[in-house]
Design brief:
The protein is α/β, with parallel strands linked by helices and 334 residues long. The protein has two domains: 136 residues, Rossmann fold; 171 residues, Dihydrodipicolinate Reductase, domain 2. It is built from nine helices and 14 strands. The radius of gyration is 20 Å and the shape is globular.
Length: 334
């Protein structure tokens, strides 16, 4: 059976601990190489993960004709430059979120994709998890009526100034790192773009990154609100309120790969849980699914699950949220 042969740029933890092991279990994916600017780190990662090749530079990996596709988990400010370099070497690209530092930067990828003919996608793995697909199906079925409000929180604590997530020049901060999930999933569930957005930002006085960002997205007939933080209790939750009921996702983003996930549905019969039921989603790994769906699109020459245009639109919203935090006004994503 033909599998897509993947190479990985860098030894980021998300790659070595989550994505690569998951993709190695895929039906259509096979990770065969990893690169680092430190050859010893590349060799150690390759040995630990059972990869055939280790390279001491990203350029060497891109030059390998045996590699079909690249997974790019580099720091945010390197997403666009190295995705472009990979595409120009004829490699398909799955790039970690956020796809770019701005919508204008993300638009560069559209032109490169069209010119080179490669497939390119932003790696929002939640898009492929059955729990999110089930939530969207429940919403579109009308079971909870018209969705009027989405509420979300995503937070953790990291005060290390040496960590790339706390460096403004590298695209660090709460909104870019985790708040982008709140924006993305609200667009996914409402199925359209927000008419206007507003955001409030609290920045770390030393590092300058947004350590707390709260957002409100106006979808006309419904709203999405959420907070994200890099200096708050480790937590995540999403709730969806409709005219006839509500849905809750207890672990919406870091869905565990070793146990089922649960969707809570409440008719609102009373405030004591009398209307609550559950849907349990079978154990799965969203990174395995993401890799396989992208690989299958390459093999079959079909559209990728989430088009690059959608990644640009998500960045348009993020740009508008940052603008709003400066102007103090509602901003129109454009």
């Amino acid at each position: 059976m033909r599998k897509i042969r993947w190479g990985v740029l860098g030894v980021a933890r998300i790659a070595t601990e989550k994505v690569i092991p998951a993709m190695q279990r895929g039906e259509w994916s096979e990770v065969t190489a990893i690169a680092s600017r430190d050859i010893d780190k590349a060799r150690a990662a390759a040995a630990r993960l059972g990869l055939a090749k280790a390279f001491g530079s990203y350029e060497e990996l891109l030059a390998d004709e045996d590699i079909d596709a690249i997974y790019n988990p580099l720091p945010n400010h390197l997403h666009v430059p190295w995705s472009i370099k990979a595409a120009e070497r004829g490699k398909h690209v799955l790039c970690e979120k956020p796809i770019a530092l701005s919508a204008d930067e993300a638009r560069q990828l559209l032109a490169v994709r069209d010119r080179t003919g490669v497939k390119m996608q932003e790696a929002f793995m939640v898009r492929t998890h059955p729990q999110w697909i089930a939530v969207r199906d429940i919403v579109t079925s009308g079971r909870i009526g018209d969705v009027k409000s989405m509420l979300g929180v995503f937070s953790y604590t990291n005060r290390d100034p040496a960590n790339i997530r706390n460096q403004t020049a590298a695209g660090g901060g709460a909104l870019m790192d985790i708040g982008c999930y709140l924006v993305y999933t609200s667009r996914f569930i409402f199925g359209r773009e927000p008419l206007r957005v507003t955001g409030a930002v609290e920045r770390d006085p030393v590092m300058g990154t947004d350590r707390l960002t709260s957002v409100l997205l106006d979808y006309g007939s419904g709203h999405a609100a959420g907070s994200c933080s890099t200096q708050m209790v480790f937590a995540q939750r999403m709730q969806f309120y409709g005219t006839l009921g509500r849905i809750e996702l207890p672990i919406p983003f870091n869905a565990p790969p070793d146990r089922p996930t649960r969707i809570i549905i409440d008719t609102g019969a009373d405030l004591f849980g009398g209307g609550i039921s559950h849907i349990d989603i079978d154990t799965c790994n969203q990174y395995t699914i993401q890799g396989d769906l992208f690989s299958k699109a390459i093999l079959d020459d079909t559209p990728v699950p989430s088009p690059l245009e959608d990644a640009v639109r998500n960045m348009v919203c993020i740009d508008a949220i940052f603008r709003s935090s400066e102007t103090g006004r509602w901003e129109v994503p454009q």
